[in-house]
Design a protein that fits this description.
Length: about 270
């Protein structure tokens, strides 16, 4: 089986034209016509992940975040991007990023959060007008769903902390003690705060919120920041589950490298 066959399958799930204009999803480097010896899935692509792929005999790394996101003017060993790409190229390992196009499908990144919180009656938070996936579902940013039962806010926050293995989370003051309707956006979701305000939503969980953005909740809903990597930690498992269904006899592995660049002092 060729690497291109794996890529084609992924892009049936979340086509590249679903990605945001600023993004760099797709094949970052490598030869799509090369026979695939194994797939290694990770949240980020780092030099350590490439080392792991070499050790495990995988010549395709599928990461959520693209190793090249902005313009690169030099490719040298002085920077981690250059070291990662040079090593991957030397060892004939292809690098593929599955980023905001996977964010924008209802069974993508945000599904991995919604599943953890057992949300039902799911829908896209901010649908893109006129765009649908292969199943006729709306595409767009974020997900809205309902908890099985109304839940007391402090209990819910503790549950979120446990489900996502958090040492800390940040949130606005509790204004509604009973929560039912929850909005989610894996990764950076501050751009959706105004959209949340326009809907009957009790809580919005996302990450990368700045200090002044917490004020934007304006006592209308509970705004929660759980951390970027923490909000997307289940994405590699989501990709693996999909590929295992499509290619049940093929080696699809989860990276054991912890690529989280942030450490919390407890």
């Amino acid at each position: 089986m060729k690497i291109q066959e794996i890529i084609h399958s992924l892009e049936q799930w979340a086509p590249l034209d679903f990605q945001e204009s600023y993004d760099n999803s797709g094949l970052i480097s490598g030869n799509p016509n090369q026979a695939c010896t194994g797939v290694l899935c990770s949240l980020d692509c780092t030099e350590e992940v490439v080392d792991e792929a070499i050790a495990k005999g995988c010549n395709l790394i599928v990461s959520h975040h693209p190793i090249i996101f902005k313009g690169v003017k030099q490719l040298t060993i002085k920077h981690f991007i250059g070291r990662t790409l040079i090593k991957a190229i030397r060892h004939n390992i292809s690098l593929y990023a599955f980023h905001t196009n996977l964010d924008n499908v209802i069974d993508g990144v945000n599904k991995s959060l919604a599943d953890q919180l057992q949300l039902t009656n799911r829908r896209i938070l901010a649908p893109i007008a006129g765009k649908f996936d292969q199943h006729g579902q709306e595409i767009g940013a974020g997900i809205v769903g309902e908890l099985p039962l109304e839940t007391e806010a402090s209990s819910f926050l503790q549950w979120v902390k446990e489900k996502f293995h958090l040492s800390v989370l940040k949130h606005t003051p509790i204004v509604n003690n009973q929560l039912k309707t929850i909005a989610l956006c894996g990764g950076s979701g501050s751009f959706l705060i105004d959209t949340v305000k326009q809907q009957n939503i009790d809580c919005f969980i996302t990450s990368d919120l700045k200090y002044h953005e917490f004020f934007e909740a304006d006592n209308r809903f509970l705004l929660v920041d759980i951390g970027h990597g923490e909000s997307e930690q289940y994405v590699p498992d989501l990709i693996i589950a999909y590929l295992n269904i499509k290619f049940p006899t093929f080696a699809v592995l989860r990276s054991l490298v912890n690529t989280q660049p942030v450490t919390y002092l407890k």
